[in-house]
Amino acid sequence: MNGLLAIAILLDVAAVSFYLLSVIKPETVQRFFPQSMPEYVNGVSVVLASLSGVLFVYVAFLGQRWQMLFQQQEIRDNRKEIRFSTGELRIRIETLANQVMQMDGDVICQTFFRMLDHWCMVRDSVRYTPIINRPDQQKSGHFGNKRVAIEKAFVCFFEDLIHWVDDEERGWRQTMDLSKEKQFYSENGYAWQARPFGLAPIGEAANLRLLTSSPLTKDEMAFLIRTVPTGTAFDAYLRLGFQLFFFMMDKNLSHYLPIIEAGMGRHERTFLFYQLATQFEGKERKKTKDWLQQNGFLAGIPTQELLSPEHGSFFIQSAAEGPK
């Protein structure tokens, strides 16, 4: 393209030069064109100028063409760069998303272990005062009115429950008239449930068992678990336990359930079994209870550790009903 431009310039210069030469020194030009010199001079100058113009136009066209090609190439290069930048940006976004997910997972795990640690601390701080003036305690001196902690607290709770089932003075066998039932309702917020008529003593405190000759129903066990006087000994333990299980359900941390169960003592596990089976009422608590059962929590508890072998179906049946 540069050669064509040079030729066009030379032709243009030649046309102008030839015309000026014919004006300044016509005798020189006349030697070449003796006849009709002006016509020849004009013709040659026009031809040279026309060729120069054509070449200039062609060079301009080629310049525009090259410019368009350069622009297209630049656009292609920009597209490649944009695609590369987009791919790199996508990789960075995915990396950042993975980092955020990892951070969220770390935060969730840290929160879970803090809650679990706090729950264990609350469990270790449980102080339970057994029911005093029990005949078996008076004879054996077992615990008396001394406050007991941790696993012994759960043992004493079940001993008190078994004693309360057959207690004629302040337990389930006491005589209740209408005024006493009203007083019970006003103090506790739920109705008194009468002991099954003709039910013989069924407590076997020495082995922490209820005799199976007349097994109690789930509703009757729920009433007993709820009514046996424990004060506020287990309140914080149960409240925090529910919050822990609800958090695990919400964050899908079922793989930690075996760890929690493995860290429980025998009687704590039995205590929590009855609490889950009979006391987890309400929409959120039932949902949490169903989730625990679906993930096999306490599913392997031996029936000999329960108050009665028939009670093993309480937790399974209540969870099988499904969330409501």
Feature tags:
324 residues, 2% strand, single chain, rod-shaped, two-stranded antiparallel ribbon, disordered C terminus
Low-confidence stretches: 137-144, 317-324
Mean pLDDT comes to 79
Distance between the termini: 85 Å
What is the molecular shape? rod-shaped
Please give the oligomerization state of what you see.
Answer: single chain
Sequence of strands across the biggest β-sheet: 1-2
Structural class: mainly alpha
Share of helix, binned: 55-70%
Element pattern in H and E: HHHEHEHHEEHHHHHH
Query: How many helices does DSSP assign?
Result: 12
What proportion of the residues form beta strands (DSSP E)? under 5%
Number of domains: 2
* Largest sheet report: 2 strands, antiparallel
Rg value: 50 Å
Q: Please tally the β strands and state the result.
A: 4
Structure explained in plain terms:
The chain is an all-alpha fold. It folds into two domains: 2-92; 125-320, no CATH class. It is 67% helix and 2% strand. The chain contains twelve helices and four strands, in the order H-H-H-E-H-E-H-H-E-E-H-H-H-H-H-H. It has helices at 2-24, 26-30, 37-124, 135-140, 150-166, 178-188, 218-227, 235-250, 257-262, 266-279, 283-294, 312-320, and strands spanning 127-128, 148-149, 203-204, 209-210. The chain has a two-stranded antiparallel ribbon with strand order 1-2. Strands 3-4 form a two-stranded antiparallel sheet. Helix 3 runs antiparallel to helix 8, helix 7 (218-227) crosses helix 10 (266-279) and helix 11 crosses helix 12 (312-320).
